[in-house]
Design goal:
This protein is α/β, with parallel strands linked by helices and 331 residues long. The protein has helices at residues 2-23, 36-53, 64-74, 89-97, 120-125, 132-136, 161-172, 188-201, 214-218, 232-239, 263-268, 271-278, 283-295, 300-310, 312-315, 321-330; strands spanning 27-33, 56-62, 79-84, 101-103, 113-119, 151-154, 180-183, 207-211, 221-223, 257-262.
Length: 331
């Protein structure tokens, strides 16, 4: 009997400890950034923190610079799930060093990926095409919309930074001399539509795109190599500069996205912080979730619930078994 009482007391003690750890999470404010992958991640955090750890979560509209400034100067919001650190690397490093902010998991395991892509069905049919240079040797595979005798490199919409880099790389690669023209689709919708049209007609497509995005979740594309490493100095001095007179072939940089939290939250969150440190996902997963969101006209919350419902094998690794069961029960 004494042994049973001791076991029961021990179990009760554990339960009380767990309850205290979860209660320590308290109220949490999360930045819901204004792009899809970050917005969905914010709602995944909300669902898991509320149902798995007993937190009380408030969503706050966010964007890179305003959110960083507010977190750094005011300590609010507590959590930015998907923060693109390259944009604020120097002040962020200072904030971490001075004890105001904490960098947690690299939420995008692959980073943000930019480059020139071709459809996978074309890559499968032409396994010799691995690089942009090899693609440019075959203008007949990528017919231009207005002149089928020429190949097309599809550019970014007007006004986007990537329009400049794509134009400079087009020039550096001598694409015009190889029978290609640079095609401006006019808008993000036009760019997406050109990819959708290529898949519907099973015709070749070559041009700029990036991940994580819904389009690359819906249409399977292959990113080509520029057959040279990224040269940051040249990129900053020329590739990213409009009308650079003598651009060189360069590779796109890889951007990093981390979860950033305030030091106050990191100190008080207890076991919930273990989840924040563990949470990371790859572009293929995000692309698929965003494609579902687009096709179903879903909100960020809808997409978060879809992910949690359909991909427990991914997110359950971020939390303990008991937390996973609580989250599943709440879905």
């Amino acid at each position: 009997m004494k042994k049973l009482l001791t076991s029961a007391a021990f179990a009760a003690g554990l339960y009380a400890f767990a309850g205290t750890a979860h209660a320590d999470c308290g109220s949490v404010s999360i930045a819901e950034m204004n792009w899809a992958s970050a917005g969905v991640a914010a709602h995944i955090d909300k669902i898991i923190l509320e149902n798995g750890y007993g937190c009380s979560v408030e969503m706050v509209t966010g964007d890179t610079m305003p959110t960083f400034t507010s977190m750094n100067e005011k300590g609010q919001p507590d959590l930015a799930p998907e923060f693109w650190v390259n944009a604020v690397r120097t002040p962020l490093d200072a904030a971490v060093k001075e004890g105001r902010l904490v960098i947690a998991a690299e939420i995008l395991a692959d980073g943000a990926v930019e480059g020139w892509w071709i459809p996978k069905f074309l890559a499968d049919a032409h396994p010799d095409i691995k690089t942009v240079q090899q693609a440019l040797a075959h203008p007949e595979l990528f017919p231009a919309p207005e002149d089928k005798s020429k190949g097309a490199v599809t550019n970014c919409p007007s006004g986007w930074n990537c329009q400049t880099s794509t134009a400079n790389l087009y020039k550096a690669l001598g694409a015009s001399e190889k029978g290609f023209e640079l095609v401006d689709t006019g808008s993000a919708a036009g760019l997406d539509g050109s990819i959708a049209g290529a898949f519907e007609k099973k015709t070749g497509w070559l041009g700029y795109y990036w991940a994580p995005t819904a389009i690359l979740g819906k249409y399977e594309m292959v990113k080509l190599s520029f057959d040279t490493p990224h040269d940051k100095a040249n990129w900053d001095a020329c590739t990213a500069v409009p009308d650079c007179p003598n651009p060189k072939v360069n590779s796109y940089p890889s951007s990093e996205a981390f979860t950033v939290v305030t030091k106050k939250f990191a100190d008080k969150a207890g076991v919930a912080m273990d989840y924040i440190k563990a949470r990371t996902w790859g572009n293929a997963t995000i692309n698929s979730v965003l494609a579902w969101q687009t096709d179903n006209q879903g909100t960020n919350e809808d997409a978060a619930k879809h992910f949690l419902t359909t991909s427990p094998e991914i997110w359950s690794k971020w939390v303990s078994a008991d937390v996973a069961e609580k989250v599943k029960a709440a879905l």
